[in-house]
């Protein structure tokens, strides 16, 4: 059964889907790591693939930018395609002085400036957390691969260009590790539907340290530590 945003049929997706924001990163990952790979979605250019990694079926699909986009795709994957686990593999800007370019962030939870959770009509503020089961596996894999990683809270923002230039400093004061634009919605959606989600991020630029930014091509093709951790735990 297809949806307005996904032409795949029931059974085309594995139980675990890796979701980079960039569909070209999904394509690169599928072509370089999966065997017997086939494209299962191309609607709106949001490429999705399914294949095997070390004999295990895995799917990879782009999520697009921002919480509305990943909110749509994750909801449909969970509800229409029987997906159980979504692992976001994205990039982030560091807002912590000890988190450097190309470090991996394993998100324990996500704070936000978004109103995404208003739909649940909760009598308070929801703390959006990742799956501890997936998080523990990712940490153990990062240790085994000797990857420089950090575990903690991140910011999922609705705004890339913020009118308040001091906003990141206030989040930095709360000990957050980095800023991106999707994970809060993913974690909320998984929690609401009784599914599992995790976010792995590679630091592409720093808002607090004087370090050179990575290029678009580097973000697409060279964030392999994060990609390989996600594949190993899928």
TrEMBL record:
SUPFAM superfamilies attached to this UniProt entry: Purine and uridine phosphorylases (SSF53167)
The name this protein goes by in its record: Purine nucleoside phosphorylase DeoD-type
Residues given in the record as a purine D-ribonucleoside binding sites: 5, 180-182, 204-205
Subunit: Homohexamer; trimer of homodimers.
Pfam families: PNP_UDP_1
Gene3D superfamilies: Nucleoside phosphorylase domain (3.40.50.1580)
Reaction it catalyzes: a purine D-ribonucleoside + phosphate = a purine nucleobase + alpha-D-ribose 1-phosphate; a purine 2'-deoxy-D-ribonucleoside + phosphate = a purine nucleobase + 2-deoxy-alpha-D-ribose 1-phosphate; uridine + phosphate = alpha-D-ribose 1-phosphate + uracil
Its biological purpose: Catalyzes the reversible phosphorolytic breakdown of the N-glycosidic bond in the beta-(deoxy)ribonucleoside molecules, with the formation of the corresponding free purine bases and pentose-1-phosphate.
Residues annotated as site: Important for catalytic activity: 219
Protein family (similarity comment): Belongs to the PNP/UDP phosphorylase family.
Catalytic site positions: 205
GO terms (BP aspect): nucleoside catabolic process; purine nucleoside metabolic process
Enzyme class at the top of the EC tree: transferase
GO cellular component annotations of the record: cytosol
Molecular-function GO terms, alphabetical: purine-nucleoside phosphorylase activity; uridine phosphorylase activity
Listed EC numbers: 2.4.2.1
This protein's UniProt keywords: Glycosyltransferase, Transferase
Keyword presence, Heme: no
Keyword Transferase belongs to the record: yes
Superkingdom of the organism of origin: Bacteria
Binding annotation for phosphate: 21, 25, 44, 88-91
Domain Nucleoside phosphorylase residues, every copy: 16-226
């Amino acid at each position: 059964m297809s949806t307005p945003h996904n032409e795949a049929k029931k059974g085309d997706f594995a139980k675990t889907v890796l979701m980079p924001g960039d569909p070209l990163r999904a394509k690169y990952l599928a072509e370089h790591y999966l065997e017997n790979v086939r494209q299962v979605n191309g609607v709106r250019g949001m490429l999705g693939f399914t294949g095997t990694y070390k004999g295990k079926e895995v799917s990879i699909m782009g999520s697009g930018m921002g919480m509305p986009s990943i909110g749509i795709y994750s909801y449909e994957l969970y509800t229409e395609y029987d997906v159980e686990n979504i692992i976001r593999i994205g990039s982030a800007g560091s807002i912590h002085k000890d988190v450097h370019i190309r470090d991996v962030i394993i998100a324990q939870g996500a704070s936000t400036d978004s109103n995404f959770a208003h739909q649940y009509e909760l009598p308070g503020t929801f703390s959006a957390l990742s799956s501890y089961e997936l998080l523990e596996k990712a940490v153990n894999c990062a240790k085994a691969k000797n990857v420089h990683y950090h575990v903690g809270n991140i910011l999922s923002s609705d705004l890339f260009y913020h009118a308040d230039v001091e906003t990141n400093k206030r989040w930095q004061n709360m000990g957050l590790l980095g800023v991106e634009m999707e994970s809060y919605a993913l974690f909320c959606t998984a929690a609401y539907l009784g599914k599992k989600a995790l976010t792995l991020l590679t630091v592409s630029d720093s808002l607090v340290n004087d370090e050179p930014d990575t290029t678009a091509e580097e973000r697409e093709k060279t964030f392999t530590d994060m990609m390989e951790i996600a594949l190993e735990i899928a």
